[in-house]
Amino acid sequence: MSNLRRIAVTGRSSRPRYGRLTAVVGALALSLVAACSGPAVPSADGSAEVPASATNQTLTVGVATLQQQYADPVLANEGGNTYPIKWSVGEPLVRQELDMRQVPALATEWSVSADDLTWDVKLRQGVKMHDGSTFTAKDVQTSINRVKDAAFTSYAAYVKKIASVEIVNDYEIKIKTTVPYANLVFDTPAPVATDYYNRVGETEFRKKPVAAGPWKFDSQVFNDSMTLTRFDDFWDKDRVANFSKLVLKIIPDESSRLSGIQTGQLDIAQGLTPNSAAQLQGSPTIKLVTSKQASVANVFFVDNWFDADSKLKDANVRKALMLAIDRKAIADSLYRGFGTVTVNATLPVTLGNDASLQAWPYDPNQAKQLLAAAGAGNLSFTLHLYNQTTAIADVQKFAEAVIGYWKEVGVNVTMDAMDPATYLDKAVKHQLTGAVILGTPGLLISDPEKLSIFYTSTGGYSSVKNAELDGMFARLSSTVKRDDQAKIAGEISRKLHETLYGLPVVSLDAVYAVGPKVAAWKLMEGNPYPGPFWYLDAK
Length: 539
Hints:
24% strand; 22 strands; 11-stranded mixed β-sheet; alpha+beta; 5-stranded antiparallel β-sheet; Dipeptide-binding Protein, domain 1; 16 helices
């Protein structure tokens, strides 16, 4: 936020249905649709208007995974591929727009005290929850109290900073923190319907949540699909769709998603690799859209989080493992131009990113020398990963490529691929040793404080316990002024580049296929996950 002392709503922009379209030719000469303000699919006749009520009232999206498959928008914060649930069923106090700007949602205005410890938040009036109840400050308080439960792992750092929550009146709430907390309002979990929650209890709420987003949870068939229905009383009419039902169909096999979009069983196919995209080239009814630099494919050395000795705790060993990987070859061959070599754990969109840093080169000879000098000539460990993830296309082939390069310098690595739910549960519980593969979405790490998830002692997916990094992130989190945040974030950017607790191997584009029933859909920049489905309309 550019002005954390006070931000007020000055009006909403009109719905960005369409953007100017330009043809982008990739390495495979694919025709990709891209827009200046985010990719969009044009209407068939080129008109600027989408029908108020579509002929097609159901759109089906084929997704590789919804990871833990949480229906609850607050619990969905625990897993990246459940972002469509978090965004659709939940409506936060502050949300990100398609260009990743933070904009008011259920909060309209907020200010912080002179000591940066007490936040006064004004709430939007006239908002309905999915059960028809009126949204009030009580719903914010209920959601904050919920995440104090240890089950909400990703909110652990948030909870530690909350001193108290005081309801001033129905549309004003005061949140006191233990330390200055610049992202407090943005990080606060989406409000939930208090009376309903108290009536059904935590277990039943998770099965059928009630919040305030543009889509209501309808039903779920575990490991198969989740169905959402349009919430007609949603407060922001610009984000209300013109069709009534959205089905998220879990299809782990990419060839089946490809077949589904070709036969019309799917209206959107997510997570396509370049090979699949090539098969859709020239289709008169199917469009390809991309979100550029949507995520970074990382290898994190989680042995650095534990007390036991490990060769992976040696910075020169980690440097050797980076130098051993021909990252350009992976970007060009495996991802066929839809991937690029990253310089650092931060991206150009990240506040404080140090643009002067140079990418680590491919130098297998130096890698061998560093390993020998460190007494790690016979290094071996396990590389754990999910067998499917939206954030990293062809994740198992990616792992095989990395392991292959390591083998060439004498490192023996065993690959351990698991289903996403099992893998992420083990990762957040710190039950994995050696190394792990995780994707970091651009939309997340545009805020450098979010890197604390991976690089601080208490982070949900932490790979390291390092007092210096903990101190840097603590200073960043407690600094309110934007310029001061950028300076600290620059220090972090350089520290992560130097220490290589995680290897940012390549950044990847997200590729979607969109079928003929879709009238318009604008994507969020830097987003590898399905959705958000705010600006999606049917024909």
